Structures are given as structure tokens and as C-alpha cells.
Amino acid sequence: MRNLLAGLAVALSAACSGGAFAADEASQEAFNNNCRTCHSWKKGDNRLGPSLHGVVGRKAGSAEGFAFSETLKKSSVTWDEGSLDKFIANPDGFIPSNNMKPFTGIADAGTRKQIIDFLKSNPE
Ligand code: HEC
């Protein structure tokens, strides 16, 4: 019983602090949780994945100084809300044999929207 109560208290406080987040903090959190292992949003800061600074409106595979897969370079995709949403939902389904591995996609549409909102805000 004590464990159950403790669990409930944790769940409640998590729910409350989640609700207190400003919209952009929640978006940043979604990015941090899902993408930051491999991507920075800082300009020119390429890691395991390319910098995502200014990615909205950019042609796929064109970030300077990053060794993209041929598939991504040759794709005719320009990143906008629609293409980003499809790519993040299912990278291999949208651009087969790309090199964004082992990331397998985010099923939750709300989380994808938060991440795209964050990328659109073009954080420095
Ligand atoms: C396991 C590491 C990893 C994770 C996690 C990851 N990515 Fe990537 N991402 C990559 C790599 C590597 C590439 C380059 C792929 C290629 O060259 O085919 C890439 C490419 C991209 C591109 C294309 C960029 C361009 O300039 O064309 C976008 C957009 C992108 N990732 C968004 C995301 C988002 C948003 C997330 C989180 C939801 C995410 N990625 C999670 C490694 C990752």
C-alpha cells in the first residue's frame, strides 16, 4: 500500500510539473528526449547527425560539412512541416536506406508536432 501511494505521488507530481511547462519548453524537452543524442540545433554543430539549425526550408542533405548518405543527398525533399513529420514518423518509409540509424521513428503525432515546432523556432 505504501508503495502504491508513493507511486501515485510521483505520478501526480510528474503530471503537475508537466502541465506547468511553457509550450516551447515542452517542445524543447521533446527534442532533447528524442533527437539530441545525435543532433544539435546550434548552427554548424554537426554531431553523429547534422546540425538541425535552420532545417525547416532547407533542401535535404545540404547542411554544410556533414557527410550525408547518397540517398539523402539525392532525394528531392525539402524540409517543411509535412516532410519532417513523415520522416520523423518513419525515416526509412519516407527515404529508404537513409543513414539515420538506429532511430526508428516516433509514433505519437503530438510529440512529432512539438519537435517540429521546436525546429521551426530556429533556436540558437
Ligand atoms: C541515432 C542518431 C539519430 C537520432 C536519434 C536522430 N537522428 Fe536525425 N539524423 C541522423 C543521421 C546520422 C542523419 C543523416 C542521415 C543520412 O545521411 O542519411 C540524420 C538526418 C536527419 C535529418 C536530415 C537533415 C538534413 O539536413 O537533410 C533530419 C531533418 C533529422 N535527422 C531529424 C531528426 C529529428 C527531428 C530527430 C528526433 C525526432 C532525429 N533526427 C533523431 C541521426 C539521428
CATH superfamily: Cytochrome c-like domain
Give the biggest sheet.
none
Could you name the CATH topology? Cytochrome Bc1 Complex, Chain D, domain 2
How many structural domains in the coordinates? Answer: 1
- Straight-line N-to-C gap: 48 Å
The succession of helices and strands, N to C, reads HHHHHH
Helix content: 40-55%
What is the percentage of strand-forming residues?
under 5%
Cofactors and ligands present? heme C
Q: How many helices in DSSP terms?
A: 6
Q: Which CATH-level-2 architecture? A: Orthogonal Bundle
Strand runs, count: 0
Q: So what's the CATH class?
A: Mainly Alpha
Folded structure, characterized:
This protein has 124 residues and is mainly α. The protein has a single domain (22-120), classed as Cytochrome c-like domain (Cytochrome Bc1 Complex, Chain D, domain 2, Orthogonal Bundle), CATH 1.10.760.10. It is built from six helices and no strands. The chain has helices at residues 2-20, 23-34, 70-74, 81-89, 91-94, 109-120. Helix 2 crosses helix 6 (109-120) and helix 4 packs across helix 6. The model is unreliable at 10-21 (pLDDT under 50). It binds heme C. Heme C binds at residues 34-35, 37-39, 48-50, 52, 55, 58, 60-61, 63, 68-69, 71-72, 79, 84, 87-88, 98-100, 102-103, 106, 115.
